[in-house]
Amino acid sequence: MRIRMHSPDPPLTRRCPFMNLPQLTAHLGSLVPADYDPLESKVKSLKTKIKSEERAYAVFLTFDLERRLIRIEDPIPYSQDILYEYGYFGNNDAATLQSHVVREVESLHYLLTSVWNDLQLALRKQHMEGSQLSKWIAKMEAAELIVTGNKKGNGKVRLDRLQLPGSLEGQSVTLQKENQKICVGSKEFKYEDFVRAMLEHGNKKDRFVLVISAVFDQGDRIVLSQYEDYRKLVRKINNLELPDEREEDSLSGEQRVCYVCQQLKYSVKSEYTTKFSRTGINKVFTTTTINSARYKTAGYSYDDTYAICLECYRHLVNGEALIEKRFKGSIARESAFFLPEGLLDAFSYDNIGRIKDQLDFAFQCPEAEEWLKMVEADVDWMQHPYFTIHIIVYRTDGTSFTVLETFEDVPALRFMQIMRTIRQVSGQLKPFLQGMSLGNIYRMVPVRETKKGEQVNVGRILSLYKALFSGYRIRSETLFDYASEALDKGISQLSKEKIDNYRNMGLGEYHPDKVDFFIQRMVMQYLALIRVLQELSILDRPVFTPPFRMEEQDMQLYESVEAIEQFLDRQGFSSEAKALFYLGCMIHRVGVEQYKKGHKTKPVLKKIHFQGMSASEVYRLYYDVLDKLRQYDAFDWYSETLIEGFHRHCGTLREREWSLSDHANVFYIMSGYAYQVGALAGHKGRKQDGNATESDPASAIAQLP
Question: Residues annotated as region Disordered (predicted)?
Answer without folding.
Answer: 686-705
